[in-house]
Amino acid sequence: MKLMFASDIHGSAYYCEKMIEAYKKEKADRLILLGDLLYHGPRNDLPKEYAPKKVIAMLNAIKNEICAIRGNCDAEVDQMVLEFPIMADYCILFLNGRTIYASHGHIYHTDNLPPLKKGDIFIQGHTHVLMAQKDEAVILLNPGSISLPKENNEQTYGIMEENNFQIKNFNYDVVKELRL
Asked: Which residue range or ranges hold the Calcineurin-like phosphoesterase domain (predicted)?
């Protein structure tokens, strides 16, 4: 199974469209959204082509392919317009004999990990900073941000397939890779 991970769209129709194009080009089986879908948040500038209504339409069009997690900028009012669940604080996935714990990153994060066994994978968004590293016990991943990257990163998403995790930009270049 091939999974695409994306985080922090923040209402950008421009980057949401690029994300969906990448999802189709990658031929991923599922799109895992790690939160902050529609609202830009009070600490962020408006992202390019801020148009939450357009983002709603684009995401609802592929609702059966999305697994989403609530971010700190997502609210019940967002759930009222999106046709797929977004209010869970985390999801647990199983891939190739591994447990993947996915969360936005504002509750559980690298300094406050959920209950994990050695070799498990923790993936989050929230920081807008990409990461792929092996800790002493677990694997820590962050696909970066679709629309508002920080720390001089570019817009990125993650692809997990087999025992490999790649962070890619919208030119489909691998920015970072980690063998799981």
From this structure: 1-162
What is the rounded CA–CA span in Å between residue 180 and residue 160?
9
DSSP β-bridge partners for residue 124: 103
Encode pLDDT of 103-135 as tens digits.
Answer: 999 999 999 999 999 999 999 999 999 999 998
**Global confidence as pTM:** 0.96
- Convert 4-41 to b/e letters by CB count within 10 Å (16 or more is b): bbbbbbbbbbbbbebbbebbeebebebbbbbbbbbbbe
Q: pLDDT for 49-92, tens place per residue?
A: 999 999 999 999 999 999 999 999 999 999 999 999 999 999 99
Residue type, 92: I
Q: Could you tell me the fold of the domain covering 2-179?
A: Purple Acid Phosphatase; chain A, domain 2 (3.60.21)
What is the gyration radius of the CA atoms in the chain, in angstroms? 15
Q: Per residue in 133-163, is it b (16+ CB within 10 Å) or e — as a string?
A: eeeeebbbbbbbbbbbbeeebebbbbbbbee
Q: Return the closest-CA partner of residue 48 out of 19, 76, 68, 82.
A: 19
Residue 154 confidence class, pLDDT cut points 50, 70, 90: very high
Tokens, residue 129: 């900073």
Q: CA distances (Å), 87 to each of 36, 105, 166, 169, in order? A: 11, 14, 27, 27
